[in-house]
Amino acid sequence: MKSNEIMKDSMKAWMLAARPKTLSGAAVPVMIGLALAYKDSIFYEGNPFSWVAAVLCLLFAWVMQIDANFINDFFDYAKGTDDTSTRLGPRRACAQGWVSVDKMKHAIAITTCLACVIGLPLIMFGGLEMVLIGILCVIFCFLYTTHLSYVGMGDLLVIVFFGIIPVCVPYYVQLHTCSTFVFLMSVACGMVVDTLLIVNNYRDRDTDKAVGKTTLVVRMGEKASLQLYLALGWGACIMGMAYFTHGFYLASLLPIMYLVFHHYTYLRIKRINRGKALNLCLGETARNIFIYGIMVTIGILLS
């Protein structure tokens, strides 16, 4: 898409800055956590499943994802890491001039406040500890782009904030408890979502290294990073076998469909190796994550 086709600060520009394709990745862990809570709610008398709390959890995840995208767009531009002449990934709003820097600052403030407003009522369902969770989400949303992604901590944050928190917290909000089983499933979900970061950083490994951004991929090298991409998907599904011990048989079997797509994308990444063509693999990985989430959720609800 050419820059001159997009009017500055237009609705189209803001849609591109929000990166709506990333919202499915934010929804998947929440969806799994709520499915587990819905299925288990029949065993907890006096704790009926709350659809209001479920919607609030999902909306919070979506707004925080948009907020993270705005923050990433602004700070990468401010740091000079979004050089349009060398960038391999999708174009960014500030770097392309689609959105003015001042308006992006205002948008970050608005989405951050909106996320807090959406999350605040969750106190009525999950208690005051929801305030701490919300504060951590906001703080690390900023720290990821401004510092932690530059020192190889991005993958750990993905497992925590796209796995453990968005699976365990919706479950806790509904049933006021959690379990080792739910925690393991949250880690598995985080591992699957992390494949998206791995392929993103694999594509950018040369430019990241040049600007001093030491991602896990830069640290590990090409071969080990490819093996990690493959292992994360397989490892998550193997951990998912724990569903058998809780009677969620279909939730263990249906993700095999995800593995087929995951392995195919791995082979394509290996074949392409470098360049903008890896953006195709980025899109496929996002699709694969969504397939995993749908398969696990259906498996839980039908088992």
Ranges where pLDDT stays below 50 over 5 or more residues in a row are: none
Number of strands: 0
Q: Report, as a whole number of angstroms, the end-to-end distance.
A: 45 Å
Number of helices: 15
> What is the percent of helical residues?
over 70%
From the alpha-carbon coordinates, what is the Rg to the nearest angstrom? 19 Å
Average pLDDT number: 90
Coarse shape = globular
Strand content: under 5%
Order of helices and strands: HHHHHHHHHHHHHHH
Largest sheet: none
Helix/strand/pairing category: mainly alpha
Describe this structure in words.
The chain is mainly α and 303 residues long. 73% of the residues lie in helices and 0% in strands. It has 15 helices and no strands. It has helices at residues 11-18, 23-40, 51-79, 93-96, 101-119, 123-126, 129-146, 154-175, 180-203, 205-210, 216-220, 222-239, 249-253, 256-272, 278-302. It is globular, with a radius of gyration of 19 Å. The termini are far apart. The relative contact order is 0.13. The mean pLDDT is 90.
